[in-house]
Amino acid sequence: MSAYKRILLAVDLSEESDQLIDKTCEIAERNNAELSLIHVIEPLSFAYGGDVPMDLTTIQEQLDDHARVKLDSFAARLSHPVTHKFIVSGHTESEIHRHCDEHSIDLVIVGSHGRHGLSLLLGSTANGVLHGAHCDVLAIRVQPIK
Ligand code: AMP
To answer: Sorted alphabetically, which Pfam families does this protein's record hold (predicted)?
Structure first.
């Protein structure tokens, strides 16, 4: 019996994300699991609120399009088939939690730098995903790309 049926890999689409590929595919392969990808876009309005006297819609759409292209290209580098690719908008950790609950994910995989303050062990997002997740969380250590 497989330990994991539905695995979700959270990617920030930085160059470092490639370091998550090999282990994720190996785990998905070994468990014969469905593998999905998620990328969360934090809306510009979160950062700028009503302070910017311009319509951010077009810039936001361009960011979404760019993320879609990058996620497709990332998925193409995986040796295990990708069942779904999700681009969602909101707060990163909350959206990952919500997605895991709604899609019955049993393992969520994130990258971990261990360079942020408290998080000598886990990066800030990895830490946030771990706290509040209702499924297993695997934090894969990534090396910063200089
Ligand atoms: P951080 O702690 O922000 O450096 O990110 C560590 C890991 O969290 C990344 O390798 C991803 O697995 C995940 N992550 C960070 N930002 C996002 C995002 N916007 N969408 C999806 N996953 C993310």
So the answer is: Usp (PF00582)
